[in-house]
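Long-time lurker, finally posting.

We've been working with Rieske (2Fe-2S) protein (Tsukamurella conjunctivitidis) and I want a structural starting point before designing mutants. I don't trust myself to interpret raw outputs, so I'm hoping someone here can both generate the structure tokens and explain anything notable. Sequence follows.
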Amino acid sequence: MMRTTQPTFCPTRRAVLAALPGIAILPVAVACGTTSKTDDAPSGSTPTNGTSSGGAGGARIPVAQVPVGSAVVIAGAKPYVVAQPTDGAFVAFDAACTHQGATVAAQDGLELECPAHGSRFNGGTGAVEKGPAKSALASVPVRRDGEELVVG
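Top reply, 14 upvotes:
Generated this for you. Predicted structure of Rieske (2Fe-2S) protein:
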């Protein structure tokens, strides 16, 4: 009598059928496990007409667009927040929310709000006023150059 055996590299029909549900769900599991920063893109921030020159010069905005007691967002490849908490004193911050990186939007006065999850920040200090963000906005240098502010 002749005896046949299956080669060790060839799975049984039962093993193939048992693996099919896992193989079918694999693309869904991979898609659900990836994230994209574009999901946190701002949808309602209020960018100003400031210009961003990128590079070493930083972003520029006219001083007149930053009234005393308010904060504005400078849109660009690298968005910034610029504020004038008191007359002649300017501060600037990275506009990326410290929770998940969405660009914050300027509200009334010095209030900044993240459109993604509702974190609120003080535009004069960068401090968190309401979570889920736990860290303050990162401070960036700002200097006056005539009637413009240079940020970054």
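Before you design anything, note these points.
The radius of gyration is 26 Å.
The chain has a mean pLDDT of 78.
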